[in-house]
Amino acid sequence: MLQVCTCTKAGHGNLIQEDSCPVHGIYPATVTTTQGVELPDRRFVVKIEIGGDTADDIESALRQLHFDWSRGSRGCVSGGCSSSWTVSVRENPEMTHEKYVAALNDYLAQEKKESR
User: Fold this and answer.
1) Which of 36, 61, 68, 77 matches a 20 to 30 Å C-alpha distance to 88?
2) 4 has a pLDDT exceeding 70
3) Per-residue exposure over 19-29, b if at least 16 CB sit within 10 Å of its own CB, e if not
């Protein structure tokens, strides 16, 4: 899987062929299950995909998304002449912080068992 770490301070930011950045632990958006135990989601999950012709176009799109989000806009699709994006928001009102932590601990315990 190809990933991009965008950290320029570390001097890398190149494509890496791993499941995560060895410096920052950036994981892919899609996480596989560990022996049937899925990595839990928090109450809100936001997926954003942005395409742009230049890095400045991406930055502009991020600014617009921040502006829209701060004014209550959530899921959207937008297309322009130099950038486009989709935002999807999913909420699980049953998920509390305590339930998330318990589910995450279960996941990590299972992952630790498998890595031995």
Assistant:
1) 36
2) no
3) eebeeeebeee
